[in-house]
Amino acid sequence: MLYQSEEVEILEEDELSSKARSTLSEIDKKQKDKREKKKGIFNVDRQLITTTLKPNREKDEIAAAEATLVYHGVSHGISYLAQQCTTTVLKNLFSSLSIASSLSCGRTKAAAIATDVLAPYFTHHVIQEMKLAFYYSLSLDASNKGNLKTYPFCVQYFSDVGVKKVIIDFIDDSSESAIDIHRNARQILDKYELNLYGLTAIGADNTNVNMGEYHSVFALFRDEKPTLLKGNPIYTVLRLEHVG
């Protein structure tokens, strides 16, 4: 026979065990719900990613049309303002076409396409051709525009279609000393990883700073490559190619 105190202890133990089982059951349920929730989120995210990665052909065609218009304008020396007007005319003329009606190529966007999309692409193409040709000549000159002084750097080289003459870069620099011009030119060669031993000639205005016998741009380059020539870069490249 159990005493009353012992019965109370047994009841309390049973009650505690019941509460413990209930608590554990709730914990298991919460963990299961949490796992199911994570699984659901993963499935949704995977579905959204798959949907996002689907290509949009119409957007690609619109972008291609805008890039083509800008390329055409730049190659013919058409201003960005004129290109903006042309885009407006095309949208009105071909309003029934979804691509034409979706064109959006104002002055700011046209300039961005030319400088940030087309220019890097074609510059990369030119550099790859130059590396295959190996030999090239470099022409440079100062150009003033307002209070800015820029130095365009032009290269000439042989390609599969003949001699090409291309401006590969501009540098803004107010200094006109031989050391600074030479530094800028070397910066261009290093930037595009052009081999100095492939440089055959330097072309520039026949001034003491550029072509003087001592401490000129040509003299500084000649110190690095004694066989460097000066004069007409096209004639020099043609002569070297003929001799080679």
Structural description of this entry:
The protein has 244 residues and is an alpha/beta fold. The protein folds into 3 domains: 49 residues; 62 residues, no CATH class; 110 residues, 2-Layer Sandwich (Nucleotidyltransferase, domain 5), CATH 3.30.420. The chain is 61% helix and 16% strand.
Which terms summarize this structure?
single chain; alpha/beta; 3 domains; six-stranded mixed β-sheet; 9 helices; 16% strand; disordered N terminus; disordered C terminus
Q: What are the SSEs and their pairings?
A:
Blueprint: H1 4-52, H2 57-75, H3 80-93, H4 98-101, H5 107-133, E1 136-140, E2 143-145, E3 148-159, E4 162-172, H6 178-191, E5 199-203, H7 208-211, H8 217-224, E6 229-230, H9 233-243
Parallel strand pairs: 1-5, 5-6
Antiparallel strand pairs: 1-3, 2-3, 3-4
Region (Disordered): 17-36
